[in-house]
Design brief:
single chain; Rossmann fold; N-(1-d-carboxylethyl)-l-norvaline Dehydrogenase, domain 2
């Protein structure tokens, strides 16, 4: 069975590693970089991402989007949010209603829609699922026991579970696609705030204070946009929030730490993809457009984009009713 992964970032490689455990699968990674393609063909790895990892023989790589999705049975889209729309447009001439699972996390900055809506609109398909949960790519690569939530089209979900779940990766179904997507997107923004708190020198107790408050806000956002309250308790909700908000393995957290400790982050953004930075702007605008008041998001936005003092976050938490 051929399975395609659109993207060759760390998480794409982690998912490829999981899929390759089933030897009957042929995994085709798509990259726009000819350098990545040539390196992978020579070394069967990408040393700039995972220096000591060699992939199984059933993992391949191509720069041809046509070759990548031709006669494939399942497609994973795992690219930076800002490229989702353009990648789907590139796929469109060759796409044959193949099931698609989205592992990217964020909100489209132009339409302010969840990524599943962007994929659905451009490729004219409902055969979509999303996966999200407390997993870092490096932990997938090292076969640590991890878990993901999955929601969307039933046949697509079943196909993903059949091929992705294994002895180290658990997938749990949810009926709340929008809730799973929102959790995966907004937790990156909260992780920035948690990093700010650490950068300011405050304790884990203060971070726990933030995480607890943010759970209430995230539940409100999910409910206001048509999701289910209980989704906050899923792997994509509290599970991913706890993971992303408590470790420097998270680039969103590390980005926030720089803001709290130094007040500067431009150089870090040049060298790292920080999805929470882009999602913050989209979420801020989306909530404003929908008339949903979430003061915590406003505070984070002002600190990151309007250069307000990072200490404002602490003042807000203490004063919040």
């Amino acid at each position: 069975m051929k399975i395609t992964i659109i993207g060759t970032g760390a998480y794409s490689l982690g998912i490829a590693m999981m899929l390759s455990k089933k030897s009957h699968n042929k995994i085709m990674l798509w990259t726009e970089s000819s350098e990545n393609e040539q390196e992978f063909k020579k070394t069967h790895g990408l040393k700039k991402i995972f220096p000591n990892i060699t992939f199984a023989d059933n993992v391949l790589m191509t720069t041809s989007i046509e070759e990548a999705i031709k006669e494939t049975s399942l497609i994973f889209i795992i690219t930076s949010v800002k490229y989702i729309s353009s990648v789907c447009k590139d796929m469109l001439p060759y796409y044959k209603k193949t099931p698609i699972s989205i592992a990217s996390k964020g909100i489209d900055s132009t339409s302010l829609k969840p990524l599943s809506e962007i994929v659905k609109d451009i490729l004219n398909t409902k055969n979509i699922s999303v996966i999200s949960g407390p997993t870092f790519a490096i932990d997938l690569i090292h076969n640590e026991p991890v878990a993901l939530a999955i929601a969307g089209n039933k046949k697509c979900c079943d196909l993903v579970i059949k091929n992705l779940a294994n002895n180290t990766l658990k997938l749990r179904k949810s009926t709340d696609l929008i809730g799973i997507e929102l959790c995966g997107s907004i937790k990156n923004v909260i992780a920035i705030a948690s990093g700010i708190i650490d950068g300011l020198g405050y304790s884990n107790s203060t971070q726990a204070f933030l995480i607890n408050e943010s759970l209430h806000d995230l539940k409100k956002i999910i409910h206001s946009l048509g999701g289910k309250n209980k989704t906050i308790l899923s792997f994509a909700g509290v599970g991913d929030l706890l993971l992303t908000c408590t470790t420097t393995k998270s680039r969103n957290y590390s980005f926030g730490y720089l803001i709290g400790s130094k007040g500067e982050y431009e150089e870090y953004l040049k060298n790292n993809t920080v999805e929470g930075y882009y999602t913050l702007d989209s979420v801020y605008k989306m909530l404003k457009k929908k008339g949903i008041k979430i003061p915590l998001i406003n505070i984070i936005y002002d600190i990151v984009n309007n250069k307000k003092a990072p200490e404002d976050l602490i003042h807000f938490l203490i004063k919040k009713p």
